[in-house]
Amino acid sequence: MGETSKPYGIIAEFETAAAIMHAAEKVRDSGFRKWDVFTPFPVHGMDRAMGLKNSKVGWFSFIGGATGYTSGMLMIWYLNAVDYAIPIGGKPMFSPHGAFPPSYELTILLGAFGAIFGMLFLNRLPKLHHPLLKHERFKLATHDRFFVVIETGDPKFSETETRALLESAGSKHIELVED
Amino acid sequence: MSEVAIPPTLKIQAPPAELEREPLVLNERPPGWISDRITSVVEGKAPRWWWIGLSISVPLMVMLFCVLAYLISTGVGIYGNNQPIMWGWPIVNFVWWIGIGHAGTLISAILFLLRQKWRTAVNRAAEAMTIFAVMCAGIFPLIHIGRAWLGWWLFPIPNANSIWPQFRSPLMWDVFAVSTYFTVSLLFWYVGLVPDLAVMRDRSKTKIRKFLYGLFALGWTGSNRHWSNYEKAYLILAGLSTPLVLSVHSIVSLDFAVSQLPGWHTTIFPPYFVAGAVFSGFGMVLTLLIPLRRLCNLEEVITVRHIELMCKVTLAVGSIVGYAYGMEVFIAWYSGSPYEKFAFWNRAFGPYWWGYWTMIICNVVVPQFFWSKKVRTNMLVVWVLSIFVNIGMWFERFEIVITSLSREFLPSNWGYFIPTIWDILTFLGTFGLFFTLFLLFLRFLPMIAISEVKGVTPQADPHHPLGGAKPGGHH
Amino acid sequence: MSSHSNPSTAATPLDLSKWRSLPTRLMLVGGILSLIGLLVPSYREQFSFSWLVSFMFFLSLCLGGWFMVLVHHLFDASWSVPIRRVTENLACQVRWMAVLFVPIALFAPRMYPWMELSANHTPDHALHAKGALLNIPTFYLASIFCFAVWWYYTTKLRFWSLEQDRTGSAECTNRMRMLAYFGVFAFAITLTLGVILWMKSLQHQWFSTMYGVYYFAGSVWLTIATVYVITLVLKRQGPLREVVQETQFYFLGSLLFAFTVFYAYIHFSQYFIIWNANIPEETFWYVLREKGSWWQIGLLIVFGHFFLPFLTLLRIDVKLSWLMIPLGVWAWLMHYVDLQFNIMPILHPDGFVLHWLDIGSFAFMAGFMARNFMKDFAAYPAYPQKDPRFAESMGVYVAPASKTPAAKVAGGAR
Question: How much is the ipTM here?
Answer without folding.
Answer: 0.90
